[in-house]
Structures are given as structure tokens and as C-alpha cells.
Design goal:
7 strands, 202 residues
Length: 202
């Protein structure tokens, strides 16, 4: 079995996480204590740019990378404006953490607006966004492992269409009284969990 120090050196998880998990397996640390050590409450914004694969196939890999560059150039200052704590880029996705779901939904609306405004030459991708909120494990490159991260990823990457913002039920419950937003609860879908669609209030 790979030594924990070697695992940690590969940049996977910190060595403390590995040791704590092994202590849970041995019964030396309770699951509740493990959660207390590694959980934090965050809003997770999962942003997926639209059309990367088709752009790569049609125009080539460098053209796809240029679109990601333009996408990030528009998104980064918006996320900073709304107090993003962590932004992790992987391929054409961005995973962003905020302290509050209100920050996350405000940032989502602003992102859709700025991306649409910047797309004057059809070189700036639009995006779908998923938002989760709750306790997540501060583990991994996104510092957000757990149910709310998984659901936000599913909503942002696989479910949301261009210009859409979708919220897990936990995120929706936390922001449902937001004065600048209106919500539609999605009653029937193929997903195994409820979610809501958010739009700026008119």
C-alpha cells in the first residue's frame, strides 16, 4: 500500500486527512470528530462553459483554449467583485466557493450578464451554473467534497442550459426570499434530488 506521505506529496489530499480517515477505520476517531475537523459551510458555484467540445472538434484545440481564456478573463473579476474565496479551474469548468449563498446567486446573475455583454464576436462562451449550499469537506483541490458539491456539479455541468442558474434544494431554501431573484421549483426531472431554477426578478 502506498505510504501516506507519498500520497500527500502527489498533491492529492493532505496527510492529516489520510491519517484521520485511517483512524476512523480503526475506531480511534469517530465519524463525528472527523466531520468536525474537516467540514466547513460554504456556497458552491459550479460553472460550466457551453460548447467547448464542439469548438475543439470544429476549430481545433488551440481555438478551444482561446475561448476558455476569454471565458476566464470575463469571469475572474466578477467572481472577485462578489467575494469569491476560492476559484478552481479545470478544463472549461470553474468551481467557486463563497461564504454565503446570496453571494453565489448574485455572482451567477452577474456572470450571465457580463458574458452576454462580452460576446460581441462570438468568441466568449456562455455558461450553465449550479449552486449548492451546506456543509462540505475541505478536502481536495476544490475544498468542497460532499453532497452539495456533487449536486451543484450535476446541475451546473449536466443539467443547466446556457444562461441558466439552478440551485439545490438547500441553496434554494437559503435564498428563497432574495428580493432580486425569482424561483421556479422543478417538480419533475430525471435527477434523484429536487432543485430550483433562479432568474433575476423583473
Amino acid at each position: 500500500m502506498t505510504d501516506l506521505t507519498k500520497l500527500a506529496a502527489l498533491g492529492m489530499w493532505p496527510e492529516t486527512v489520510y491519517r484521520d480517515l485511517l483512524d476512523v477505520e480503526r475506531g480511534a476517531l469517530s465519524e463525528a470528530d472527523f466531520r468536525a475537523r474537516h467540514i466547513h459551510r460554504k456556497a458552491v458555484l459550479e460553472i460550466d462553459s457551453i460548447g467547448l467540445t464542439s469548438t475543439s472538434l470544429r476549430l481545433g484545440e488551440v481555438a478551444a483554449l482561446r475561448r476558455i481564456l476569454r471565458f476566464q478573463q470575463v469571469c475572474a473579476p466578477v467572481l472577485a467583485d462578489f467575494g469569491a474565496e476560492l476559484t478552481h479551474a479545470f478544463a472549461d469548468n470553474l468551481t467557486v466557493l463563497f461564504d454565503s449563498p446570496t453571494q453565489a446567486i448574485d455572482a451567477a446573475f452577474a456572470l450571465h450578464t457580463r458574458l452576454a455583454e462580452a460576446n460581441t464576436d462570438d468568441l466568449v462562451p456562455q455558461c450553465g451554473i449550479g449552486i449548492g449550499y451546506g456543509d462540505v469537506f475541505a478536502i481536495g483541490p476544490n475544498l468542497a467534497m460532499g453532497d452539495e458539491m456533487n449536486k451543484a456539479s450535476k446541475l451546473g455541468e449536466d443539467t443547466a442550459e446556457s444562461g441558466e442558474t439552478l440551485l439545490t434544494d438547500a441553496a434554494f431554501q437559503a435564498v428563497k426570499d432574495h428580493p432580486a431573484a425569482r424561483f421556479t421549483v422543478v417538480a419533475e426531472s430525471d435527477l434523484p434530488f429536487p432543485y430550483a431554477r433562479a432568474e433575476p426578478a423583473r
